[in-house]
Specification:
By secondary structure, this protein is α/β, with parallel strands linked by helices. The chain contains eight helices and seven strands.
Length: about 260
C-alpha cells in the first residue's frame, strides 16, 4: 500500500485522530500537509517526526471556516509538495445543548467547520486530482452521521450532511480515478477523551477503568475504544490502490454502535 509520490492534506492533524492519520500516511510514503492548532515548537516537532527520506512535510495554519484560506491550503499542497492527491477532512468541533437552548453562533461554527469546510476543500482539490487521473477524498464523519443523539443538533446535522456530500462526490468522480468515502467512528481514545474520563472518575469517586466501560456502554456493544492508529490504518487502506473500487461508502468503526 505504498503512497510514495502522493501528497496528502490532513485537516486537524496536529493532535488526536488527525495526527494518527498523518502518521500512517507518512509511514506509507506520502508527503503530508499538516493543518491545525498548536504552538510553533510542537508543530515543528511533528514535522520532524513525520519527515523521512522521500517524505516531505509542510504545515498550513488555515482557518477552515474561511473559504479563501481553505483554497490557499490546497494551493500550498500543490505548490510546495506537488499535488493534492489525498484529502482527509478530519477537523471538527462539538457543542452540546438542548435544541431550544442551542446557541446560534455554535450552530453556525459547527456547520462551517464540520461540513462547509469539506465542501470548499474538495472543490479546490478535485481539479488537481482530475488532472492526474487519481485522487482520494476521505471524510471523517461519525456514528452520528448515521444515527442521532440528544443535545447534539449541529454535530449530528453536519455529520449526516458530510455522508451525503461524500456520496455526491463519489458519483461525480466515479470515472476520474477518484474515490470518495466516509469513515464513521464511535468512541475514539484521544488525549482529550482520556482527560474527560479521568475528570469523570475524579468527580464520581470511581476508577478510570470503570468510567471507560460506563462511557462505552452508553452506546457501544463492544466495550473497546478505537484509536487514532486504527483510523489511520483504515485511511491508509482507502488511499491505496487496493481500495480503488470502494467509493461512496460510509464505513463504520464504532464497536457495534450503529448495528443496534
Amino acid at each position: 500500500m505504498s503512497l510514495t509520490g502522493k501528497t496528502a492534506i490532513v485537516t486537524g492533524s496536529t493532535s488526536g485522530i488527525g495526527l494518527g492519520i498523518a502518521r500512517k500516511l507518512a509511514a506509507g510514503g506520502a508527503n503530508i500537509l499538516l493543518n491545525g492548532f498548536g504552538d510553533a515548537a510542537a508543530i515543528s516537532a511533528i514535522k520532524a517526526e513525520l519527515s523521512a527520506p522521500g517524505v516531505r512535510v509542510a504545515y498550513s495554519s488555515a482557518d477552515l471556516t474561511k473559504p479563501e484560506q481553505v483554497r490557499a491550503m490546497v494551493a500550498q499542497a500543490v505548490s510546495e509538495l506537488g499535488g493534492a492527491d489525498i484529502l482527509v477532512n478530519n477537523a471538527g468541533i462539538q457543542h452540546v445543548a438542548a435544541i431550544e437552548d442551542f446557541p446560534e453562533d455554535k450552530w453556525d461554527a459547527i456547520i462551517a467547520l464540520n461540513l462547509s469546510a469539506t465542501f470548499h476543500a474538495v472543490k479546490a482539490a478535485v481539479p488537481a486530482m482530475k488532472a492526474k487521473g487519481w485522487g482520494r477524498v476521505i471524510n471523517i464523519a461519525s456514528a452520528h452521521g448515521l444515527v442521532g443523539s440528544a443535545h447534539k443538533a449541529a454535530y449530528v446535522a453536519a455529520k449526516h450532511g458530510l455522508i451525503g456530500l461524500t456520496k455526491v462526490i463519489a458519483i461525480e468522480t466515479a470515472n476520474e480515478g477518484i474515490t470518495a468515502n466516509s469513515i464513521c467512528p464511535g468512541w475514539v481514545l484521544t488525549p482529550l477523551v482520556e482527560k474527560q474520563i479521568a475528570d469523570r472518575a475524579q468527580a464520581n469517586g470511581t476508577t478510570v477503568e470503570g468510567e471507560r466501560t460506563a462511557l462505552l456502554s452508553e452506546k457501544q456493544p463492544m466495550h473497546r475504544f478505537s484509536t487514532p492508529d486504527n483510523l489511520g490504518d483504515l485511511v491508509l487502506f482507502l488511499a491505496s490502490d487496493a481500495a480503488a473500487s470502494i467509493t461512496g461508502a460510509a464505513l463504520s468503526m464504532d464497536g457495534g454502535w450503529t448495528a443496534q
